[in-house]
Amino acid sequence: MSDQAVSDEGTSFPLQEYLGMELSNVEPGVATATLLLDDQHANPNGVVHGAVLFALVDTAMGKATMSVIDANFYCASVELSMRFIRPASDGKLIAEATVVKRGRSIVHLEARVHDGDDRLIATSSGTFAILGG
Q1: Number of structural domains the chain divides into
Q2: What is the pLDDT of residue 9?
Q3: What is residue 133's predicted lDDT score, i.e. its pLDDT?
Q4: Parent domain of 18
Q5: Proportion of the chain above pLDDT 70, given as a percent
Q6: Is the Cβ–Cβ distance between 60 and 23 less than 8 Å?
Q7: pLDDT computed for residue 12 by the predictor
Q8: Closest listed residue to residue 104, CA positions, set 64, 133, 63, 61
Q9: Whole-number Å distance between alpha carbons of 85 and 87
Q10: What is the 3-state secondary structure (H, E, C) of the chain?
């Protein structure tokens, strides 16, 4: 288990800031990414663009992965699969990512995205590589 969940709590990166994502660890192996929706997140049809949902999930999964690896390591997305359940157009989105299995070099995760009314928006599975050291 890692101290990374605590040590990187104040860090952010440009895409996170641009989209307005808030990150937090629920517990080791579980992280959330929250986004308050506005017009910049919409596709031409007025609903959240799929790439925004993908970025939200990828970010939550990265945060969950970092919480289960040592601080001298980092992670990178290897594969993500997204299933869009229903559109979202306003309010808040919450992606919760959970580590399913941590191996020596690969971490498998699942995520669910809900809106502020707890309606399921999307589900995802992903694989992250453990790098560095």
Answers
A1: 1
A2: 52
A3: 80
A4: 4-132
A5: 92
A6: yes
A7: 83
A8: 133
A9: 7
A10: CCCHHHHCCCCCCHHHHHHCEEEEEEECCEEEEEEECCHHHECCCCCECHHHHHHHHHHHHHHHHHCCCCCCEEEEEEEEEEEECCCCCCCEEEEEEEEEEECCCEEEEEEEEEECCCCEEEEEEEEEEEEEC
